[in-house]
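Reviewers of the previous submission asked for a worked example of the structure-prediction workflow described in the proposal, so we include one complete record here. The input consisted solely of the amino acid sequence. No template or homolog information was supplied to the procedure at any stage.
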Amino acid sequence: MDKKELQIAIGKRIRDLRELKNISQVDLAYACNFEKSNLSRIESGRTSPNIYTLYTIALKLEVELSELFQFEKK
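From that input alone, the workflow returned the following structure tokens.
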């Protein structure tokens, strides 16, 4: 898996977890103190979030950080 594929996989996992918990993108971005556009870029795989950003997202989704990396590998 290259960098771009990893970004996309993490973003999809974040989106899937957010939707599973019925949290809107706006609400999660607000809870994380992000702009909605920043969260959108993360979820679409257009940016590579740093570890603290991922930690913040996991905290607000009430999941372990490691859960953000539990995705199907190709």
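The chain has four helices and no strands. We consider this example representative of the routine output the project will generate in years two and three.
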